[in-house]
Amino acid sequence: MQMFYKNGGKLVEYKLVTDPNEAEYWTTHRLKKSEIKIITERDRSTAANLRQEILDDIISREPNPSRKSATTADKVPQKRQATKPIYVKARQTKRQARR
Hints:
alpha+beta
């Protein structure tokens, strides 16, 4: 798939190389800077800056899978609490035999 990024009025062609290949479509996949390959010829430092810009742009538009989703306003899960044993005897440790 051809992908383009506009930088300073010039188009930069790039592609995503993920392992597995289908991971670029997953919402749970965390994209890494090393998975972005610049196809347009650039020198090494410029390509690194472009990769970072592209990564920042993609992350700003995509949902963050590391964040937990907001809790729902459903009262059923909030209403029920785990039961706590009230009348439980404290367990004593075994005494060691004297020599």
